[in-house]
Fold:
Amino acid sequence: MKSESLVIIPTYNEAHNIGRLIEELMALGEPVDVLVIDDGSPDGTAAAVKEAQSQFGERVHLIERSGKLGLGTAYVRGFQYALEKNYTYVCEMDADFSHSPNDVPKLIEEVKQGNADVVIGSRYANGISIINWPLPRLILSYSANLYARFITGLPIFDTTAGFKCIHRRVLETISVDKMRSNGYAFQIEIHFRAWRAGFKLKEVSIIFKEREEGVSKMSKGIVWEAIWRVWSLKIQSLLGKL
Structure:
């Protein structure tokens, strides 16, 4: 039976994590379906997802892409899929266990209860709740979020959070096909577009853990995109061209 909730997980070289992550999501008390969007991982990530499909059937979906096309385009494709398949609650999460599968139900429940249209698993809503990050990375992330909040006016602390649940009406309204950001900038953009469209955002504090397996996809390009993209979004909003 198809769930009304879909968890979208973009992947690149996550073969060590994805099978176990799917298993844990399938075991939740809150029934969810999973969509993995794999960017041509050479390590066999897609094969691991197909193995999970043989176990969990139509609750696990896979879109294979030809190469590294970017986080933003992966999520846009996932949102399109969610709308096409009539899911009501659409979640984002990372494949590396930095986001706990056990937090997924509480994000979905907040949206189901009507407490918000976008519920964000936040690293900064209750102080700083991050484990095993080196100090320079923590300073960079925290400063980037202060910067993004200052420029955009977003009423949330974790503007770059990649762990959230979104009601489908948000995705239908904000024209996800127009989104061009990647990396952290994509997360800022979806929060900003939803907020400017009049939707309610809410943060729920989570514990964020540094990845257990594999290699971080963080790069200087991702950081620089976020720096200039917030100005682009602000200007577009002021001109009524968002």
